[in-house]
Amino acid sequence: MPEKKKKLKYKFPAEFLWGTATSSHQIEGGNENNWTEWEKGGHIADGSLSGRACNSWELYKEDIRLVKELHNNTYRFSLEWSRIEPEQGHFDHDALRRYRDLAHECRRNGIEPIVTLYHWTQPLWFARQGGWLNKQSPLWFRQYVTRVAKELGRDVTLWCTINEPLIYSYNSYFKGKWPPQARSFWQFKKVLRNLAKAHELAYFSLHDGSSDCRVGIAKNNQFFESYLNQWFNKMVVKLVSRFWNHSFLGKVRDTLDFIGLNYYFHNVVYASMRGYVVMNENKHISDMGWEIFPRGIYETLMELKRYNLPVYILENGLADARDDRRADFIREHLRYVHQAIREGVDVRGYCHWSLLDNFEWADGFEPKFGLYSVNFKTFERTPRASASVYADIAQNNGF
Ligand code: PNW
After folding, report:
1. How many structural domains compose the chain?
2. Domain span at residue 149?
3. Can you tell me the distance from the alpha carbon of 138 to that of 82, in angstroms, rounded to the nearest whole number?
4. Which of 155, 229, 252, 296 could form a disulfide with 103 if both were Cys (CB 3.0 to 4.6 A apart)?
């Protein structure tokens, strides 16, 4: 039977990449890194440990089957540095082979792998020497990346060096929320500087390893908006968004082939001399209390126009255990992505966070970000209703 041609209101560009995103520590299980050490101190809100997580270390072929079931043509995952280089200078062949298998499994299924090199977890030897505060840290990172490029360079074209440098350094070195729980503005700034250096070195290593690779970062950008149209608020909005959205990108812009955008947050800023507060309307929120504000993805995309680079949306999603908001969330955000494309932003792909329910950092397993729910005892994956909505969009390249 010939397929019925659907009339699409929002048609995406040919070759558009549709995918989901995950990270190693959140899904693999069995890791030994600075985060697993920290978990043992009872820091996780729901009392859990990452433990076996989704057991994706073993079940990666099953995961790719799900990606396929979603009619996706890309999958963003990350490499666990602590597995690849468990001791400084010693590389684990089995771990490297396992990641090569994962990339092959993607390719075999017509899925473009997008590979993140650093999604926040550190090998113990790295953490013990001060992690990103050590001035050698960018060089250590380069050594790891050079080795990875040699092993995976033939299978991987799209590389994301660092996931959300600001969210990470802010929570780990300024807010004291994540390991190593520092609270220092200077450490925060120093870590940002070293992450930028690490990115630059990685950029050149990756390009040495393969001629046609493309390298970017995943940047958490937020839509800052002034409370009412008050001049003081507007000024603060300008400063805050210049710092949060553009300072890191500005530092590394000469070594970016694309920008990865992670969009989650909208902030209506009400400023006073003592700082600012966020005054969101919060008409719609996720299970984590994060405001759902689809227009923000359009605004953050339009703000990226100035860099004149291709953009991949590398994360966007919500915790929604009952799955009663996710389908609308996806459609609404994509409507705005489509509008940004119409208005000239070169958006090449969209990765939903996340494929699976997984280990949500200091919040444990409670938040449910997955298009597939996971039974954390049997590791069985079950599609939520929104998964088929997303699968249709990907299959039709629009909706
Ligand atoms: C992103 N916050 O992180 C990460 O890249 C993912 O690993 C994560 O699972 C996902 O978003 C959902 O949270 C963030 O507390 C984690 O503001 C926390 C915050 C922001 C982003």
Report:
1. 1
2. 17-396
3. 16
4. 155
